[in-house]
Amino acid sequence: MKSHYNDPAAAQTIERRTYAIIVDNEPGVLARIAGLFSGRGYNIESLTVTETEHEKHLSRLTIITKGTPAVLDQIKAQLERLVPVHRVMDLTTTGPSIERELALVKVRGQGEHRMEALRLATAFGARPVDATLESFVFEITGASEDVERFISLMTAIGLVEVSR
Q1: Strand 58-67 to strand 15-24: parallel, antiparallel, or no bridges (unpaired)?
Q2: N or C terminus: fewer CB in 10 A for the chain?
Q3: Global pTM?
Q4: Terminal C-alpha separation, the chain
Q5: CA distances from 125 to 33, 62, 140, 141, 142 (A)
């Protein structure tokens, strides 16, 4: 049965946003922000945290999430109301930015497979950070698409584990 009313959620597209959040560097802040997301059914695609101003005890959280424009604006407004939050910046709307992904990729292989893993790592700019007689751990940094291609090629060789 067709409705006579428009479905506003169906008409809106899903967008990806990156938020940089300056917060007090104190216990429980990350849990409160993650709780805001999980309590409302929002998903965090990526999350990084580091102390940025030691003297002022401030940290920066960088969160990537997806949603409709209305939901994303609501997320930003709710983040700004949290007590330990000093500032929320939507990096997606501030202009061009650089986004990089870091992955550690463990590959098992001997003989020709081992040589192929080294050749691919060199071609992708990955560097070995650990090596044994049976395996390598490579560190790769780059665009998400490049990291994904590297991982998929390593799967054919003997991918053991990935940490992104």
Answers
A1: antiparallel
A2: N
A3: 0.75
A4: 45
A5: 35, 25, 7, 8, 9
Residue-wise pLDDT tens digits, 31-50: 999 999 998 889 999 999 99
pLDDT per position as a tens digit, 64-110: 999 999 999 999 999 999 989 999 999 998 888 888 899 999 999 88
Unique residue bearing structure tokens 């990526």: 46
**What one-character-per-residue DSSP string does 17-82 give?**
EEEEEEEE--TTHHHHHHHHHHHTT--EEEEEEEEEETTTTEEEEEEEEEE-HHHHHHHHHHHHHS
> What torsion, rounded to 10 degrees, do the Cα atoms 62, 67, 68, 71 define?
-70
Q: Is 7 helix (H, G, I), strand (E, B) or coil?
A: coil
**Sorting pLDDT into bands at 50, 70 and 90, what band is 161?**
very high
